[in-house]
Design goal:
This protein has 245 residues and is of the alpha+beta class. It has one domain: Nucleoside Triphosphate Pyrophosphohydrolase, CATH 3.90.79.10. Helix content is 27%, strand content 34%. The protein is built from 6 helices and 11 strands. The strands form 3 sheets. Strands 1-9-10-5-8 form a 5-stranded mixed β-sheet, sandwiched between helices. Strands 2-4-3 form a 3-stranded mixed β-sheet. Strands 7-6-11 form a 3-stranded antiparallel β-sheet, sandwiched between helices. β3 and β4 form a beta hairpin. α1 packs across α2.
């Protein structure tokens, strides 16, 4: 049984996803706020890298004429940690933070794909393989999701905008384990896998991964089936194999 669900799929290169930001912060009931606070205090003792940054809760999404629209509202990572990442949280899924994230397959000019194994210093997905990505933590005037994705590529992989030849949205998925929604991109870069290997050694957020691997297109299916993966990472590979091979 799959641990992810693909909520939308296709080639959206002509249209960037549209965001509707609801004013104010998402509110939680007093019992839920107490659960969130209790788990945060406990987890902070175990992991000093935890940070209650700005995040945006996905309230709803829709698709019309090949355009994806996401309705979001400001929340905090602490709320996500205390709801979505809390195995003892027994309220309905709409009471969770459900913070929106982006992630991207990275394809080198010599047809290799980048994957990273997440370290024990990250808040979620410890020891699992995934593709580069991060939470939506800022709203820009235009192209917010693409800009967030480019920022994450810079921080995690030392890939700046000048090294990107193409970036496009190929779908939208959600983990059945945590209910976390992620917008999936495909990013083609101008670097060879050898050049990228050298760039990775100087990445700003090097602590997030213990190792990286470059995988040939023909080996993608075997790789995700033989490793423990963040669910949406597998969804991204499935989308690519279905639409671009």
């Amino acid at each position: 049984m799959s641990d992810f669900e693909i909520l939308s799929q296709g080639n959206y290169e002509e249209y960037l996803p549209h965001l509707i930001v609801i004013p104010n912060k998402k509110e939680y009931s007093k019992p839920i706020r107490e659960i969130i606070e209790k788990k945060w205090l406990s987890d902070k003792k175990k992991n000093s890298f935890l940070f209650d940054g700005i995040a945006y809760s996905l309230l709803s999404f829709s698709q019309k004429d090949n355009i994806l629209t996401f309705e979001i509202q400001k929340t905090g990572y602490k709320c996500f940690n205390g709801t979505n990442l809390n195995p003892e949280f027994s309220y309905p899924s709409y009471e969770m933070a459900n913070i929106l994230a982006v992630c991207s397959l990275v394809k080198t000019r010599d047809q290799k794909f980048l994957f990273g194994k997440r370290s024990n210093f990250v808040a979620e997905g410890k020891g699992l393989w995934h593709i580069p990505g991060g939470n939506v933590d800022k709203i820009y005037e235009k192209n917010t999701l693409e800009k967030i994705m480019i920022k994450e590529l810079q921080e995690e992989c030392n890939i700046d905008k000048s090294l990107i030849s193409e970036i496009k949205n190929i779908g939208f998925g959600r983990s059945k384990t945590t209910n976390k929604p992620e917008i999936i991109f495909l990013t083609k870069i101008k670097l060879s896998f050898k050049d990228l290997s050298n760039k990775l050694k100087k990445a700003k957020h090097e602590f997030e991964h213990t190792e990286f691997k470059m995988i040939d297109e023909n080996d993608l299916g075997h790789f995700i089936n033989s490793r423990k993966f963040v669910p949406v990472g597998k969804a991204a590979v499935k989308l690519y194999l279905e639409y671009y091979v």
